[in-house]
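Dear colleague,

As promised, here are the two records you asked about, laid out in our usual form so they can be pasted straight into your sheet.

NAME FIELD: protein one
SEQUENCE, THEN STRUCTURE:
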Amino acid sequence: MTDLRHDGDDVYGTDLDDEVGADDAGDEGAGSRAAAVLDYVARSIVDDADAVVVDSEIERGRLVLRLRVAPDDMGKVIGRRGRVAQAIRTVVRAIAAAEGVEATVDIVD
């Protein structure tokens, strides 16, 4: 069985902390790492990475992350039957929970 503990390197051999800006995580407040991971994952999936925008705000004590992508990339981010979107939401919720924050991801037009 493969050991899946995080040692700072992702499966591609790059340092994920450098990719998502872990050094700046404390500067932006609660959930900044979750927002950075959402941005990283979205840019990795879409064709037009420059069109990816992640907005964050706190609503009713919960971090709400809104993901905007180019119209042509919406299908890639949502996936068949919403499976990619659900996977993204699960990963972001887990990262936020590790930071002690409850988070949701909205994919907006």
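NAME FIELD: protein two
SEQUENCE, THEN STRUCTURE:
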Amino acid sequence: MISLILYSTAGCHLCELAEAQLQQARQVFDLDWRLVDIADSPELMEVYGVRIPVVAEPDSGREIGWPFGQPELREWLAQLS
């Protein structure tokens, strides 16, 4: 299983789209993720404030930032497998 973090914040429409892309990618990859609201952390706000949504794989530190579609997301996930 690939465990991911989706950096987002409340009311972020693009974050909802990114989560929908992750849900669709579950058809091909064994995924789970947790949402992390960057508004809860000044450090995360500094790093991701203008970049969200960002999907990260915490073990490797690899990230994919918006915009991405299924081709880009699946290629990125395949590199993690």
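A couple of things worth noting about protein two: The mean pLDDT is 96. The CA atoms of residues 4 and 31 lie 8 Å apart.

Best,
R.
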